[in-house]
Amino acid sequence: MGKRFRGRGRGRKHGPPSKRRKSDQLHLSAKQKKHFKAYGDFHPSESSDTVKNYTRVEDNAETHNEEDSSSSDSEDETPVQQLLKAIGVGSNTAGEVSEDDDSKEDDSEEEEDKESDLDSEEEEDFEGDVHDKDGEDLDGSDHNEEGAGIITGSDMEGDTGEASHGEENDDDENELTAEASEEDCEDDDEEHILKEDDPFTVHFEQDLPETLEKKLSATTVWSKKDTKLKFVGDSTLMWKDLACVPQKKLGQKDLKTAGVKHKLVDQVAATNIKEGKVDVISHGEIMTPLQFGLFGIMNNYQDLFYPRQSHSNLEEIRLTYCLHAVNHVLKTRSRVVAHNAKIKARRGTAFDANSSQEFRDQGFTRPKVLIVVPLRNSAYRIVSVITSLLAASEQGLVSNRKRFKTEYGDEGHDEDKKGLKPEDFDALFKGNTDEHFRIGISISKKSLKLYSPFYMADIIIASPLGLRTVIGAQGDKERDYDFLSSIDLLILDQADVFLMQNWDHVLHMFDHLHLQPRESHGVDFARVRLWSLNGWSKHYRQTLIFSSVMVPELMSVYNKHCHNFAGKVQVHRKSTHGSVCRIVVQLPQMFHRIQCSSITSLADARFEFFVKEVLPQHKQKDMKQTLIYIPSYFDFVRMRNYFKKEEISFVHINEYATSKGIRRARIDFNKRKAQFMLYTERVHFYRRFKLRGPKHLIFYELPQYGHFYSELCNMLEDPRRRSLLQQIL
Q1: How far apart are CA 391 and CA 330, in angstroms?
Q2: Phi, psi dihedral angles at 398 (to 5 degrees)
Q3: All structural domains of the chain
Q4: Considering the chain, what is the average pLDDT of its residues?
Q5: Crossing angle of helices 552-560/503-511, nearest 10°?
Q6: How far apart are CA 319 and CA 166, in angstroms?
Q7: How far apart are CA 321 and CA 316, in angstroms?
Q8: Minimal CA–CA distance to 7: which of 17, 396, 15?
Q9: Strand order in 650-653's β-sheet?
């Protein structure tokens, strides 16, 4: 076997020789080998052409490794090559051919490298489009060089992980790409689902005439009609233009024909059972009759005031408005994605140059749904319902879930609660009861990203206090309310609890809805709806108010801040036997009528009547241990100052008192060291004390919650005393 000769190659250190190297090996005949072994040279009869055909000269290509080049130099300096160099046989021709081959192969390899780089860049760009078109990255982490895969169980908890093998990452990339392309196809298909009679299209894709807008903005009285809505009950329908009121029948049970995304419909029954604890499958339905009735109103995009909320139907109502909110967000997103595809398809064409068609499908900012709830536990339940509706938890497409469970979950928040409390108290204050929070949520078809920045979020869930700290007050340097400029759907859940917090925060929020943004926030004004540019967003916004009571403050918001051109629906409260029937103590009850000229003078008239007519009767020695229940904190402060001024023996318990102060006041009152106790409604709402020692009870004003009346009256039960007195102003 002859010796192998090779030129200076590319300096590869590892791996088998390439095909090009194998072809470079020199093959000699037996005669040539024998002569070369004996004389160290070829026979003179050997033609130079023959030698040229089998000999490869040195390649002058640069090496990438100095060690390889030095070893190849010593190895290549053979007698044959020295001879060829001396006589110049075939040095040019063979060298040119070799260099051409090398250059061609180098070019082909470079082209392959470029193509692979382009392919990887295209894949990365495509993945970026998948995430960026929703303004989100599902796992909240940076993609590694190997590629990002579908979120695993650890990733959805906010942790980041890398695949152990590149092949696994490639498979995940393919799955993600397939899912994204499938999602885009579904979006294209769903573009056709949004027909002209779809409630979303009817409400948001029409421009009101200017005459109608003036009519809606005018202080004219709303037309009213009492009606009985299917599955809802007695209600009042209000409108300013009857032609704008949707004529679709309410209470229909086929959600798919009502324009609800089919994938959401498929998850409603399971969500009802899992989150709402409502067994609807046994009745052959996916929702309860109440849910069908309420969703019919919501799906018509009419305003709704529902004052029949209770701890028993709380989850039913929550699932209903979550379904409506997610359906609205997905429809908005489908519209935008479909229009993006149309714009991209016609870009640079003659049709694009001559077309005057506009795709106005956006507002000034991205947030479309604002859900205001009083406590963190309510926000936690809402996110759980939305996750179940999207089936995101099953596929692991929920980002920042671990952080969310830590900050909003129930774990560790019920350990300090002592004593037996009423059922409604346990339902409201179960879990995390913090009142200061806000969170942005971005939604795609099957994924949910928590803690999205407000301007990248579709849904904002917040408390009144959480919004107030962001909105700020006039004169504050750091304040922001532009994210409220394009809210299509406003939901006030458990609105009666807002009255126990700070009602001014709610009014402050309404004052900053749909104001002109101070910054553009990257909006494409060519895509902004005309009615948003005209400042008519308040006439398109749908407002849903759910409460367990009907009080003047909520009615004022409903009448003053709800301007929906599609009309609004106010549900009547049911006639009940009242809280008086739940009083188990036999006691006389005296009701006083107060004369006043106007509602604005009622507070002063009530105070004067109390000081002159009621208080003197209870200053007597036989009227000790009188409990005075005061709903308003302002009235409490006024009463406390008066008692101090008149040096009347009293103790007081209010929501700002310390636990030590409350304990001391209860002991002094029970031991008759104080004749009066001033007791605010808010502290009773949050603590539900069962006071000991009161023999007489004065309601300075009727409580906001009817069941508080019977709770307080039943505190007067004392077997040693049968003569009890209760007075109500």
Answers
A1: 14
A2: -125, 115
A3: 199-347+360-411+421-570 (3.40.50.300), 579-726 (3.40.50.300)
A4: 78
A5: 0
A6: 42
A7: 9
A8: 17
A9: 589-591, 725-728, 696-699, 626-630, 676-680, 650-653
Report how far residue 729's alpha carbon sits from residue 717's, in angstroms, rounded to the nearest whole number: 22
pLDDT of residue 71: 46
Nearest CA to 729 out of 553, 592, 608 is that of 592
CA-wise closest residue to 433 among 441, 421, 450: 421
What's residue 39's pLDDT? 62
The dihedral built from the CA positions of residue 647, 648, 650 and 654, taken in this order, carries a sign that is negative
167 vs 661: CA distance, rounded Å? 67
Of the candidates 306, 272, 274, 303, the residue with the CA atom closest to the CA atom of residue 286 = 272
pLDDT, tens digit, 9 for 90 and up, residues 306-319: 999 999 999 999 99
What backbone phi and psi angles, to 5 degrees, belong to 304? -140, 130
Residues of the chain with pLDDT under 50: 1-25, 47-75, 83, 87, 89-106, 108-192, 719, 721-723
Element (H, E) at 305: strand 303-306
Helices (H), 55-152: 66-76, 79-87, 91-132
Contact yes or no for 155/449 (Cβ under 8 A): no
Q: Whose CA is closest to 491, among 316, 312, 307, 325? A: 325
